[in-house]
Every structure is written in C-alpha cells, then in structure tokens.
C-alpha cells in the first residue's frame, strides 16, 4: 500500500468514526426520549423498558467490550497520535492556505496554477518542490479532468505525497547504532536550535534502554553550553566529560573517547559549538574534532547530526544547506516541530537537500524526542486535509 493510499485509508476511517459517534449520539437522544415516555406512561412501562434493552444490546457496545476495542486500536497508534497532535499547527496553516486558494479562484486556469506555486512556497515545502508539483498538477488535471475544488485539492496532496515517497526510497531514518561496540554521535548546529536539549533527551532514552552513555561538552567557548550539558547529565544520571571554558574542543573529545573505551560505554554523544557567523573557524574546529575521532576509531563518527529548529522554516533549510556544504552531515534532528506551523519544511529537506531526518521533537517532555517515522509524519500532516469528492 502506497503512502497516499494509507492517508486515504486513515481519512476514511476517521469519517467512519465520526459517523459512528453521530449515530451513537442520536441513539442516546432517542433512548432518553424513550425513558421520558416510559415515565409518563406507566401502563406501557415494562414493555417500553424491554424494547429499550433490546435496542441497547443491538446498537451499542457493552462498556467492557468497547474499552477493550479502544485499547487494541490505540496502542499501536500512540506515536501516530503524537505526530497528529504535533503537526496540528502546520496542518491548520496548510488548510487555511488551501481554503484561501480555492476561495479566490473559480476556474482552474494558468493563474490558478501560479497561485498553487505561491501557496506551496508559503507553506514551506520548498521552491523547487512547489514548481514541480504545479507542473505535474497541470498534466494531472487534464488527465482526470478535475475541476471541482475537492478533487483538485486531493490531487495536490497526492502529488506532494508521491514526490515525498519517491525521494525517500533510499533514505535511512534510523540512527547508525553500533551493535556490541561504541556508537559515537557528533551533534552540530547553530546556537539556540535545541542542540544540547536534544542530546540530553537522547541520553535519557539510551539510559532507559539500559545503555552506558557518556556526554562530551565540546562547546568550550560558551560557558552556558557546558553548564547546560552538565545539568542534563545530572538529570539523566549520565557522566559529562568537560574541560575549562576556552579550552581546545578536540582535547575534550579525545578525553571523552578515552573514557568511553575505558568504561566500555555503549554511546558517546558529543556537543559542539554553533557559531555560524564564524563559519570558517567553526568548520575548521569540526574537522579537527572529526580527525581526533577517526584517529581513535576509523569508522566513527557514526552519525553527524545537524540540529535545526523547525519554527525557523526556510532559515532551517539555509542552515542545513550551509552545513551540508562544509561538513559531512548524515542526518537532521528537527526540534520544536510541535510548536510551529512550518512543518512542511520536512518535505523541502527531503526533496531538495536529500538529507534524512533522524530525530524529531514532538513536545517539551523528556520523552518527546522521537525517531523520525516518515509514514507517521506524512499521514499526520495530510490526513486532515483530504476532501470528500
């Protein structure tokens, strides 16, 4: 089953659940009327009560059975629900833009297709992606002879989903964890994106799995960064290897590598500086850190994770582009996705930068950093945007 088929299936399922809720509400109202009739007509009371019990048995689940059904259905969908909740602002913005698009245009003409491009660009799906979708939409509308707004909107979504699925065929979203050996993850990104917080949350998750974790505070030129990582270390009961403020970041990494091997750690998470305004110096610093890592372990670092803030939209794309050009980024950590209307940036990142999203922040809690699931993401974003044709 393709991704768009999954979205349609989820959409139909929601509609069926809405219909079932409406029917149940109507039955309840009818039952209440039956109760009132029973109270005012004593002669038919017992007969009405028997009819009411038969109706209840035939039209409503017994309470215990209904609760059991909900548990069976909801347990596998916990992560999906997180995505749906976390993407609610993005979904609303996308829906508002679509409503505005179809409110202003009564016919599907060239002006309409140009406005489709502007709408998608405004939804942060990327310039190249927007142009491609508009071009494909022109052909699809001709083939399907789609003229009604609902049919055209569904076609736009289908094209976005198909492109997203096509570009992600070879994408690996899982973290490159080493089995029975030390996994070394290097975190990069500008200050303020949630880099240190993401490291702390990931450390917590690994600790919950029973793994031995070490943190390295290699952002040595900002005392606040060291202090913040130490606080996360205390919170998650994880040791932090650090140096003095202003010391050589590479020396901290060397000490952390040595300690990790001596203590047979499973995971080493390395925090680095994020001064993009001094790009040349920063990249030289990162190169030196990576040379130290490779000298101790030629296969490492096993991930170079760029942390970007989803709320910055196109700026996040620009940061990713700059880091991609100057260092070997293997994947992205997309923070604050739940607090933004710019979640469409994930489409642009996949379609235009071809960088896999590895982790995503779907809340402020310590357990709200999730391994990115592209299927859950796209269903959570688009399911509520389909229209009944």
Automatic annotation (TrEMBL):
<feature type="compositionally biased region" description="Acidic residues">
    <location>
        <begin position="24"/>
        <end position="39"/>
    </location>
</feature>
<dbReference type="GO" id="GO:0005047">
    <property type="term" value="F:signal recognition particle binding"/>
</dbReference>
<keyword id="KW-1003">Cell membrane</keyword>
<feature type="binding site">
    <location>
        <begin position="189"/>
        <end position="196"/>
    </location>
    <ligand>
        <name>GTP</name>
    </ligand>
</feature>
<keyword id="KW-0675">Receptor</keyword>
<comment type="function">
    <text>Involved in targeting and insertion of nascent membrane proteins into the cytoplasmic membrane. Acts as a receptor for the complex formed by the signal recognition particle (SRP) and the ribosome-nascent chain (RNC).</text>
</comment>
<dbReference type="InterPro" id="IPR013822">
    <property type="entry name" value="Signal_recog_particl_SRP54_hlx"/>
</dbReference>
<comment type="similarity">
    <text>Belongs to the GTP-binding SRP family. FtsY subfamily.</text>
</comment>
<dbReference type="InterPro" id="IPR042101">
    <property type="entry name" value="SRP54_N_sf"/>
</dbReference>
<dbReference type="GO" id="GO:0005525">
    <property type="term" value="F:GTP binding"/>
</dbReference>
<feature type="binding site">
    <location>
        <begin position="271"/>
        <end position="275"/>
    </location>
    <ligand>
        <name>GTP</name>
    </ligand>
</feature>
<feature type="compositionally biased region" description="Basic and acidic residues">
    <location>
        <begin position="1"/>
        <end position="22"/>
    </location>
</feature>
<dbReference type="GO" id="GO:0006614">
    <property type="term" value="P:SRP-dependent cotranslational protein targeting to membrane"/>
</dbReference>
<keyword id="KW-0342">GTP-binding</keyword>
<dbReference type="Pfam" id="PF02881">
    <property type="entry name" value="SRP54_N"/>
</dbReference>
<comment type="subunit">
    <text>Part of the signal recognition particle protein translocation system, which is composed of SRP and FtsY.</text>
</comment>
<dbReference type="InterPro" id="IPR004390">
    <property type="entry name" value="SR_rcpt_FtsY"/>
</dbReference>
<keyword id="KW-0963">Cytoplasm</keyword>
<dbReference type="GO" id="GO:0005886">
    <property type="term" value="C:plasma membrane"/>
</dbReference>
<dbReference type="InterPro" id="IPR000897">
    <property type="entry name" value="SRP54_GTPase_dom"/>
</dbReference>
<dbReference type="InterPro" id="IPR003593">
    <property type="entry name" value="AAA+_ATPase"/>
</dbReference>
<keyword id="KW-0472">Membrane</keyword>
<dbReference type="InterPro" id="IPR027417">
    <property type="entry name" value="P-loop_NTPase"/>
</dbReference>
<dbReference type="InterPro" id="IPR036225">
    <property type="entry name" value="SRP/SRP_N"/>
</dbReference>
<feature type="region of interest" description="Disordered">
    <location>
        <begin position="1"/>
        <end position="84"/>
    </location>
</feature>
<feature type="binding site">
    <location>
        <begin position="335"/>
        <end position="338"/>
    </location>
    <ligand>
        <name>GTP</name>
    </ligand>
</feature>
<keyword id="KW-0547">Nucleotide-binding</keyword>
<feature type="domain" description="SRP54-type proteins GTP-binding">
    <location>
        <begin position="356"/>
        <end position="369"/>
    </location>
</feature>
<dbReference type="GO" id="GO:0005737">
    <property type="term" value="C:cytoplasm"/>
</dbReference>
<dbReference type="GO" id="GO:0003924">
    <property type="term" value="F:GTPase activity"/>
</dbReference>
<protein>
    <recommendedName>
        <fullName>Signal recognition particle receptor FtsY</fullName>
        <ecNumber>3.6.5.4</ecNumber>
    </recommendedName>
</protein>
<keyword id="KW-0378">Hydrolase</keyword>
<dbReference type="Pfam" id="PF00448">
    <property type="entry name" value="SRP54"/>
</dbReference>
């Amino acid at each position: 089953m393709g991704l768009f088929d999954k979205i349609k299936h989820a959409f139909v399922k929601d509609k069926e659940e809405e219909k079932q809720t409406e029917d149940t509400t109507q039955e309840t109202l009818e039952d209440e009327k039956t109760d009132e009739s029973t109270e005012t007509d004593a002669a038919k009371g017992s007969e009405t009560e028997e009819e009411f019990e038969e109706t209840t048995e035939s039209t409503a689940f017994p309470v215990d059975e209904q609760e059991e059904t909900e548990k069976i259905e909801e347990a596998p969908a916990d992560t999906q629900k997180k995505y749906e909740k976390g993407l609610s602002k993005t979904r609303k913005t996308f829906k508002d833009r679509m409503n505005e698009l179809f409110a202003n245009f009564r016919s599907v003409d060239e002006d309409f297709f140009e406005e489709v491009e502007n709408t998608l660009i405004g939804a942060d799906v990327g310039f190249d992606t927007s142009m491609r979708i508009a071009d494909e939409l022109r052909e699809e509308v001709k083939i399907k002879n789609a003229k009604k707004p609902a049919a055209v909107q569904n076609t736009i979504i289908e094209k976005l989903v198909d492109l997203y699925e096509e570009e992600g065929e070879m994408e690996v979203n899982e973290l490159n964890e080493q089995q029975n050996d030390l996994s070394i993850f290097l975190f990069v990104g500008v200050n303020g994106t949630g880099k240190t917080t993401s490291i702390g949350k990931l450390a917590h998750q690994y600790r919950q799995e029973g793994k031995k974790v070490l943190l390295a505070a290699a952002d040595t030129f900002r005392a606040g960064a060291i202090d913040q990582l130490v606080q996360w270390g205390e919170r998650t009961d994880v040791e932090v290897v650090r140096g003095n403020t202003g010391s050589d970041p590479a020396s901290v990494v060397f000490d952390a590598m040595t300690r990790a091997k001596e203590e047979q750690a499973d995971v080493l998470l390395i925090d680095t500086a994020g001064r993009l305004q001094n790009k040349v110096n920063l990249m030289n610093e990162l190169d030196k850190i990576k040379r130290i890592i490779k000298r101790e372990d030629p296969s490492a670092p096993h991930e170079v994770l760029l942390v970007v803030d989803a709320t910055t939209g196109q700026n996040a794309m620009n940061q990713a582009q700059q880091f991609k050009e100057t260092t070997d980024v293997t994947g992205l950590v997309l923070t604050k996705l739940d607090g933004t209307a710019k979640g469409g940036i994930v489409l642009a990142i996949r379609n235009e930068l071809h960088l896999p999203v590895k982790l995503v922040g779907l809340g402020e809690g310590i357990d709200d950093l999730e391994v990115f699931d592209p299927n859950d993401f796209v269903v959570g974003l688009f399911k509520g945007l389909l229209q009944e044709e």
